[in-house]
Structure formats: structure tokens, C-alpha cells
Design a protein that fits this description.
It comes from Sphingomonas aurantiaca. The protein is α/β, with parallel strands linked by helices and about 525 residues long. The protein has 21 helices and 18 strands. Strands 1-4-5-3-6-7-2-9-8 form a nine-stranded mixed sheet, with helices on both faces. The chain has a seven-stranded mixed sheet with strand order 10-16-13-12-11-14-15, with helices on both faces.
């Protein structure tokens, strides 16, 4: 049989394609001319890692400049100040803004940016924001330190380095750049850390930015804010008087010592367009003194407090670094090891919050407690509060739960004390002058001896303890400890919940107490 020539040619051509496909380096284009033609065209170059084009940089800048609140725009207008110190209300977007400011400066100027916070976890808030900003314009960022290049800088110029550091000043040495010191009024060892931070910005091209909510007048950073530390080093005729009142610094100004200062209260923020909070709700949730501190930029005088600020802030740690046996994202964050919990129920009559605290008890007698979690909640009845506790403790091997069983707490206790509740070690605590005094005395001892630790960025723990003050009972005959509106225990709920846990250990941390305490 004679095979047609045309068919023979087609077979040979197809066979040649198959052989090219099967050979090393073969691809689908060898079998399909259309695919081959498509693949042979000019390929789009891969995007450079951690790199911004001019268009991406412009797009990011325009996006944020168009959505800033007035006070953020004011910070932007003063970003080239050598030193800025900003006292601000909680939750008005300061960390968010300064993360953007630093990223834009890295893109445009190529300068290094260094972020200091009370802990690594808090510093990584900057990193998370920056990574999110970059994604808005199609740039994926990574690395620690993070190296950033852009078309806005000369080709071949060194990348801008972004460092995200906790307050272990030993890890911060040897770097230079603009630095941002977040919540500097809440860090332990401010003097030592600030020496290292200032050294990072020795050259005049670098900028220094401090911003924080206020803590207490006892904090080591307070004399820097008022200018008194500078005055102590100057002759009498060289000293300056700086008005650091909220009214004087509302608009921000360069003060007599050359530092640009500003105060931004929540009222100032709302006046500047901030619309993310309900002012009436904030007033309802926080007693006047707490509201003034958290949102009104008023420093606390802890001279009447049962606990001292500097003692408490020294207990903070970088939990992500030092607690290798705890993973908050895990199904069982602390594995099978035992934890203790304390619950201060919500009292609907006084309008306070409820709080649940979970601690890892000491592994040896006289060892350290660690606050693994703390939660606050509001607006739940006793059944909902009990269900909340069950849900949280289901992730832990909880062997003790101390509950204030007075008021609303009685219902919570009854539900959780049932054999089928799923919660073990439920213990009733009935408040009295003696019980409260014992709890505070035990907590004071634990704090003074440094036997308790918590994540440094959890500022509400410190605030909660500071709010407990020594006072006289209504009869005028006995001393007790109170806090919150109307002398209640409202805004120290985290502290009281924590003290429910500490009460489970003997007063000396070793053996059971042999006598009771009488309040006179």
C-alpha cells in the first residue's frame, strides 16, 4: 500500500515535535505552535523583593495623606523636627500613623528606621502595619531587619533598614537611624534605654520621636517631658521654664529646650475628625480618674496607691522571647501543665467590668507567677459570664479558679461549681475587710519580691493595680482598699482577679498561714 506523501510529511513533523518535547528543556510550546509563540514573547520581569517603584511609592503616599485626621496631618507637617515628644490619648492611631511615616521616609530618603517598644510583641505592631501598607500597592515585604529599596533612590544605594526592637537595650546597640519610641512612659529602665536610643540618632540627619499615653509622675521619663532633667544639668541662668499643660501644647510647639511637644487628648482627636469612638460610652465605661489618665493625658499620682508604679512596670517582660513554654496561638497554649485562674465578676449595679486572669503558678516554692492571659468583658449576665469562663479555660489544664461569690458572682460560682460544669478547682471567695486586706498584703509581697511577670505591652495590668488605693471605711474606723467610681472596685477588675489567684498560695509562698489578720 502506498502512503500519501502529504500524510507522511505530517507524521514526520509531529514526530519531530514530540522529540523536541521529550528532550531536556522541552516544554508544551514544542507540541503546540500557539503556545510556543506565546511563550517566545517578551516576559514580564519579576518584581524585586522589598522594592517600591516610583508609582507604588506615590500611590501609597497619596492614599494615606488623603485619609489622615487633622492631628496626624499635623504630625506629618512636623516630621522633620529633630526631636518630637507627643503625649496622646489611647487608641487614636498613633502607632498606625508613625509606622506609615517611617515607611514613607525609608522609601523616599533611604534612611534607616528603628522601632522601640515595651516588648518585641509591641514593636511588631509596627511591622504588621508596614507589611499591610505595602500590600495595598502590591509589594510584599519580609525580613528582620527589613531591607527596603525604591526607584526614588539612586541605583546601587544601600537599602533602608527597618529594625523592630523590644526594650532590651543590649539588643539595640550598634544601630543608627531615625527612631520611634512607643509608649516610652511605660517602659522599665528608661534612663538606660534612652541612652542607647539617643546614641542611635547621634548624627543630625536622624530624627527622634517619642510618643506615649501618660503613666505616673514617678516614671523616669517624666523629668524629660517637663524639661526638669535638662535644667538639673544647667547653670541657674541657663534653665528654662516649659509649660507642658494640655492647653499650652494642644497645637504642638517647639519648646524652650528645642524639643517639639504636643498633647492630643481624645477630645482633641475628635475635634480633628477622629470618629472611631463613642465619647459617651467611654465615659460610661471608665471612672473619671481613669478616663483622665487613659484619654485625657493626665498623669497619675501613685503616692496613695497600694502598689507603686515603678515596682509594677519592672515586672514586665518580653513574653514572646522568654516564655518558650507558652504559645498563645496553640490549641493548648500551656500544654498539659497546670494553670490557676481568678475571676472578678461584673457587678451590674455598679456598672463595672468583669475580668478573667489566667496564671502559670510557680514551678518551685517561692518561684514566679506568670500572667498568661487576661480578659475584660461587659454587659453579660451571670450565665453568659460563666459560659465565657468555660470557653477560655477549655484550652487549659486549670486546677484552681477563685471567684468572688458576692453579688452577681454568686450566680457565676453556682453554675461553675456544679460537677458537670467542666471546670475544676472552683473556689468561693467572699469579700470582707479582712479578706481584701489579706489579698492586697499577699500581692504587695509578691510584687516587691518580683515574683510575678507579664507581657510588657499589657499596660492595663499596671493601671489596674495602680488604681487600688488605701482608704478609710464609711464608718471611719477601719482601713481598706478600694478603687473605681463611687469607691467601688470597678476599674481594678484585672488586679482583683489576679489577687484571687495569688490568694491560693500561702502568704509566705511556702507554708500555710497560722494566724488571721485583724483590721483595726
Amino acid at each position: 500500500m502506498i502512503v500519501p506523501l502529504a500524510s507522511t510529511c505530517i507524521d514526520f513533523a509531529s514526530l519531530a515535535k514530540v522529540r523536541r518535547y521529550e528532550a531536556p528543556g522541552g516544554h508544551s510550546g514544542d507540541l503546540n505552535d500557539k503556545v510556543g509563540n506565546r511563550n517566545s514573547g517578551e516576559r514580564k520581569p519579576k518584581a524585586k523583593k522589598n522594592h517600591f517603584t516610583k508609582e507604588q511609592g506615590d500611590q501609597l503616599r497619596d492614599h494615606f495623606l488623603g485619609q489622615m485626621y487633622d492631628y496626624q496631618q499635623h504630625w506629618w507637617n512636623n516630621l522633620n523636627r529633630r526631636t518630637r515628644m507627643i503625649l496622646k490619648s489611647r487608641q487614636i492611631g498613633a502607632t498606625y500613623y508613625f509606622a506609615f511615616e517611617a515607611l514613607m521616609d525609608a522609601i523616599q530618603s533611604g534612611r534607616n528606621q528603628i522601632f522601640l517598644s515595651a516588648s518585641k510583641a509591641q514593636a511588631h505592631q509596627f511591622k504588621n502595619y508596614i507589611v499591610g501598607f505595602a500590600k495595598l500597592v502590591g509589594v510584599t515585604l519580609g525580613g528582620d531587619p527589613m531591607l527596603i529599596t525604591s526607584d526614588l533612590r539612586p541605583e546601587g544605594e544601600a537599602a533602608a533598614e527597618l529594625h523592630f526592637l523590644g526594650t532590651n537595650f543590649r539588643t539595640a546597640q550598634g544601630r543608627s537611624g531615625n527612631f520611634y519610641f512607643d509608649e516610652f512612659f511605660w517602659v522599665h529602665g528608661f534612663e538606660d534605654l534612652n541612652k542607647v536610643a539617643s546614641a542611635m540618632a547621634t548624627h543630625k540627619k536622624w530624627r527622634k520621636t517619642y510618643f506615649s499615653t501618660p503613666s505616673t509622675i514617678a516614671h523616669l521619663a517624666y523629668p524629660y517631658w517637663t524639661g526638669e532633667r535638662r535644667n538639673k544639668r544647667k547653670k541657674k541662668d541657663e534653665r528654662v521654664e516649659i509649660d507642658v499643660s494640655n492647653a499650652a501644647l494642644k497645637e504642638g510647639r517647639e519648646c524652650e529646650d528645642g524639643i517639639w511637644r504636643q498633647v492630643v487628648t481624645v477630645h482633641d482627636a475628635i475635634e480633628g475628625g477622629f470618629d472611631l469612638v463613642d465619647l459617651e460610652e467611654l465615659h460610661d465605661d471608665h471612672p473619671d480618674d481613669e478616663f483622665a489618665n487613659l484619654f485625657g493625658c493626665i498623669f497619675v499620682d501613685d503616692s496613695l496607691s497600694a502598689f507603686k508604679f515603678n515596682d509594677l512596670v519592672a515586672l514586665g517582660c518580653d513574653s514572646l522571647v522568654v516564655w518558650e513554654d507558652f504559645d498563645p496561638e496553640a490549641q493548648q497554649p500551656y500544654g498539659d501543665r497546670a494553670v490557676w485562674a481568678g475571676y472578678d465578676p461584673q457587678n451590674s449595679e455598679e456598672g463595672d467590668n468583669a475580668a478573667l486572669v489566667i496564671m502559670a503558678p510557680p514551678l518551685v516554692p517561692g518561684g514566679q507567677f506568670r500572667i498568661l492571659e487576661r480578659h475584660q468583658l461587659r454587659g453579660l449576665d451571670f450565665e453568659q459570664q460563666a459560659e465565657f469562663i468555660r470557653a477560655i479555660l477549655s484550652r487549659y489544664n486549670c486546677t484552681y479558679l477563685g471567684i468572688d461569690a458576692t453579688g452577681v458572682g454568686a450566680g457565676v460560682y453556682q453554675l461553675l461549681a456544679k460537677p458537670d460544669s467542666g471546670v475544676r478547682g472552683v473556689t468561693k471567695i467572699e469579700y470582707s475587710l479582712e479578706v481584701k486586706a489579706t489579698m492586697v498584703m499577699k500581692a504587695q509581697n509578691v510584687v516587691r519580691r518580683g515574683r510575678i511577670a507579664f507581657e510588657s505591652s499589657h499596660l492595663d495590668i499596671v493601671s489596674s493595680f495602680i488604681a487600688i488605693k488605701k482608704t478609710i471605711t464609711d464608718s471611719g474606723r477601719n482601713m481598706t482598699f478600694k478603687s473605681g467610681r463611687g469607691g467601688g472596685d470597678g476599674h481594678s477588675d484585672i488586679a482583683w482577679a489576679a489577687m484571687h489567684i495569688l490568694l491560693n498560695e500561702p502568704l509566705d509562698g511556702k507554708e500555710a498561714p497560722k494566724a488571721t489578720m485583724e483590721i483595726i
